[in-house]
Amino acid sequence: ALDLPTIGVTHRPLVARGAWPADAAGAVSALRIGDEVVAHWLRTRAGMRPLAVHAGWRTTAATACAVVVPLCRMRTPEPLRQARRIARTGRSALPAR
To answer: pTM for the complete prediction?
Structure first.
């Protein structure tokens, strides 16, 4: 509806499978469902678990990976870390059930 390019990032893919990339920042390896490459493992820092990154609307896999790496001060991209922090703060302000 907004026609904005998007990417997806997760810690654990639900269906896709693939070997982890080399232990170096920026290393990638394919995640597949059957024979089709649907995403990539992306190592954001050496010694850290990789993230699953996939191209969304109007984005390529290479662009998705190139966007995610500089956003990672830690393992998770900073916009996602901030969104999770805000969600936790909002939940804690809700009355107990």
So the answer is: 0.84
